[in-house]
């Protein structure tokens, strides 16, 4: 009911420059909020369910009774719901102290004519009220679909990219879109023939490539150069619509959500670099970050792999020379090379120390 309280849950504006989004006057790298939602995951979206149910019940009582008691109960239920919503990405930047929620229910109670019109089918206020209810009711499912669909897309089309340049992201997205559009057409063809679509790899009904948005161009000041530039100012009707826009605009700028190879949490890999680790502090490491700890572990793993290959090759060449000179038979050669490979695999899997690995290779 934006026309009454202009609250962030109804409509909110975000300015986009080529590399940033501007929310509440602050600048964020493109992709920031998509990553934040991925990190929140299913649980944060599910927290909406019970407060929403309570608010729906109390608000219906208020609409019928319109007295002080029902207004107070609806007001407190709405505060409880908005506190949960205020933890979500973007909303946590917009639904700060001073937003207009507290005055909504007292305002409605003081304007009975608005309440009557809001409940009269076919009126503009009734249509607005129905849209408002629908957005609240669908928000949990839409946020969970965003998390599920985005994770599937990233795992299937972006995980094994040979490089992390912006162009590689766009090509991967093009492949993803082609696959989804082909699947959507196949689903439509199957359903047109009266049959049921059985492929449940991804829920095609929750995927869309278009989102309602109003757009205009506004001048903004670049915080780094202090020079004016034009930004796209978009007014979104839903949080999920903005999250997809932030995700795709970030992708076009070379920014993409990625799981940290150390802590497994989501972070924003920026600038097209093959960044595998986030900058979160690892507990119990005296302030070391995943990036520092991970780089150290990666170097250790690299050295281990090099050691495994070097010692194996040395043994392989020694056995090969013995076979060529006739000191061992072909069968003995095959058996000992297989044993050397097993030892290499065990060492690489950290099932034996370097000393034991070298010792057993020398005994072959």
Question: How would you portray this structure in words?
Answer:
Residues 173-200, 302-350 form a coiled coil. It comes from Oscillibacter valericigenes. This protein is of the alpha+beta class and 364 residues long. It has two domains: 1-275, no CATH class; 290-362. Helices cover 58% and strands 11% of the residues. The chain has helices at 2-5, 32-46, 49-65, 68-85, 91-94, 104-110, 112-118, 124-157, 166-192, 239-252, 290-324, 330-348, 354-362; strands at residues 12-16, 20-23, 26-29, 213-221, 228-236, 256-259, 266-269. Strands 3-2-1-5-4 form a five-stranded antiparallel β-sheet, covered by helices on one side. The protein has a two-stranded antiparallel sheet with strand order 6-7. Helix 2 crosses helix 8 (124-157), helix 2 (32-46) packs antiparallel against helix 10 (239-252) and helix 8 (124-157) packs parallel to helix 10 (239-252). The N and C termini lie far apart (79 Å).
User: By helix and strand content, what is the structural category?
Assistant: alpha+beta
How many independent structural domains? 2
Order of helices and strands: HEEEHHHHHHHHEEHEEHHH
Amount of helix: 55-70%
What tags apply to this protein structure?
elongated, Transposase, coiled coil, single chain, 13 helices, disordered N terminus, alpha+beta, 364 residues, DUF6076
């Amino acid at each position: 009911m934006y026309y009454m309280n202009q609250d962030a849950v109804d409509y909110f504006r975000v300015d986009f420059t080529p590399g940033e989004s501007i929310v509440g006057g602050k600048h964020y790298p493109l992709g920031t909020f998509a990553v934040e939602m991925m990190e929140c995951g299913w649980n944060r979206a599910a927290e909406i369910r019970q407060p929403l149910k309570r608010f729906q019940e109390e608000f219906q009582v208020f609409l019928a009774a319109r007295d002080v008691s029902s207004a107070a109960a609806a007001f407190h239920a709405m505060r409880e719901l908005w506190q949960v919503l205020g933890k979500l990405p973007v909303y946590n930047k917009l639904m700060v102290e001073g937003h207009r929620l507290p005055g909504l229910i007292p305002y409605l109670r003081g304007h009975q004519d608005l309440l009557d019109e809001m409940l009269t089918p076919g009126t503009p206020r009734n249509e607005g009220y129905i849209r408002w209810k629908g957005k609240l009711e669908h928000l949990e499912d839409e946020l969970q679909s965003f998390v599920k669909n985005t994770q599937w897309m990233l795992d299937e089309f972006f995980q094994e990219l040979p490089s992390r340049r912006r162009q590689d992201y766009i090509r991967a997205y093009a492949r993803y879109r082609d696959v989804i559009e082909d699947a959507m057409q196949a689903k439509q063809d199957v359903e047109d023939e009266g049959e049921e679509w059985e492929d449940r790899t991804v829920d095609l009904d929750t995927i869309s490539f278009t989102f309602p948005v109003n757009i205009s161009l506004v001048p903004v000041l670049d915080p780094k150069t202090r020079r004016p530039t034009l930004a796209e100012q978009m007014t979104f009707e839903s949080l999920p619509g903005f999250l997809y826009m932030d995700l795709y605009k970030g992708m076009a700028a070379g920014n993409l959500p990625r799981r940290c190879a150390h802590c497994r949490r989501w972070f924003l890999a920026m600038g097209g670099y093959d960044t595998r680790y986030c900058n979160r502090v690892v507990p119990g490491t005296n302030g070391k970050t995943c990036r520092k700890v991970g780089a150290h572990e990666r170097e250790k793993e690299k050295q281990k792999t090099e050691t495994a290959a070097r010692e194996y090759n040395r043994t392989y060449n020694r056995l090969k020379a013995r076979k060529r000179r006739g000191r061992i038979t072909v069968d003995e050669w095959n058996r000992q090379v297989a044993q050397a490979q097993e030892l290499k695999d065990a060492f690489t899997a950290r099932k034996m120390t370097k000393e034991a690995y070298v010792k057993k290779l020398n005994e072959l």
